[in-house]
């Protein structure tokens, strides 16, 4: 049985961490959660995206790089499979939306260098939804730093994610992607929705790990 890396992706507020935790329990996977609210630039970023985007993105990149290094050495190399509530490719999605001028090419060069030898996902779970659903769920969880979230920024981010994932599937045909439209799914509050999602994902994980279904 081989160890694999599963990543859960989608826009802010879509339920990535909740689903990752459920998958960790259901499939006996090591859980990796990204460091978000420890980022000292996050609150400032939501208030002034142009001013604080480079600092924010560099903090995220360096922390995610270190996390994935540790995951590789401490778990994947030891035969332990991992589910993560992010894929490091998200860095390029956010950077292309927020970085301006010479900051973007500089950032992308650093990204390419840091991620060259990092473990890549064996399975990507992608969740998306309309702007109305995403904003509703952000409001429901009521995190202070997200109260000033710009709707236009979020709308553009959802479009960026969808465009990126379309391109990702074309350029990475050997990496399976499972998609969920979360407008009609609420696996956090509806057990039947959670069962539906897990029933779709678990057999794919078992197959990739070489387990009998």
From TrEMBL:
Entry's Gene Ontology cellular component terms: cytoplasm
E.C. no: 2.7.1.113
Pfam short name (any one): dNK
Gene3D superfamilies, alphabetized: P-loop containing nucleotide triphosphate hydrolases (3.40.50.300)
GO molecular function: ATP binding; deoxyguanosine kinase activity
Keyword vocabulary terms for this entry: ATP-binding, Kinase, Nucleotide-binding, Transferase
Enzyme type, top EC level: transferase
Residue ranges of domain Deoxynucleoside kinase in the record: 6-202
Residue positions binding ATP: 10-18, 137-141, 185-187
Superkingdom in the source lineage: Bacteria
PANTHER family to which the protein is assigned, alphabetical: DEOXYGUANOSINE KINASE, DEOXYNUCLEOSIDE KINASE
Protein family according to the UniProt entry: Belongs to the DCK/DGK family.
Protein name in the entry: Deoxyguanosine kinase
Organism, as annotated: Brevibacillus brevis (strain 47 / JCM 6285 / NBRC 100599)
């Amino acid at each position: 049985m081989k160890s694999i890396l599963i990543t859960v992706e989608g826009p802010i507020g879509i339920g990535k961490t909740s689903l990752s935790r459920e998958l960790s329990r259901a499939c006996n996977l090591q859980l990796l959660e990204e460091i978000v609210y420890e980022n000292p630039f996050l609150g400032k970023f939501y208030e002034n995206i142009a001013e604080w985007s480079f600092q924010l993105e560099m903090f995220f990149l360096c922390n995610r790089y270190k996390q994935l290094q540790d995951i590789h050495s401490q778990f994947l190399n030891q035969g332990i499979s991992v589910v993560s509530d992010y894929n490091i490719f998200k860095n390029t999605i956010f950077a292309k939306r927020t970085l301006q001028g010479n900051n973007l090419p500089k950032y992308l060069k650093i990204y390419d260098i840091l991620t060259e030898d990092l473990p890549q996902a064996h399975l990507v779970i992608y969740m998306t939804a309309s702007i109305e659903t995403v904003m509703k769920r952000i409001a429901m969880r009521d995190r202070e730093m997200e109260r000033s979230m710009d709707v236009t920024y979020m709308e553009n981010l959802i479009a960026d994610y969808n465009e990126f994932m379309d391109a990702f599937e074309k350029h990475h045909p050997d990496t399976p992607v499972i998609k969920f439209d979360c407008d009609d799914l609420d696996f956090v509050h509806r057990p039947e929705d959670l069962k539906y999602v897990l029933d779709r994902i678990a057999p794919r994980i078992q197959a990739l790990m070489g387990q009998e279904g």
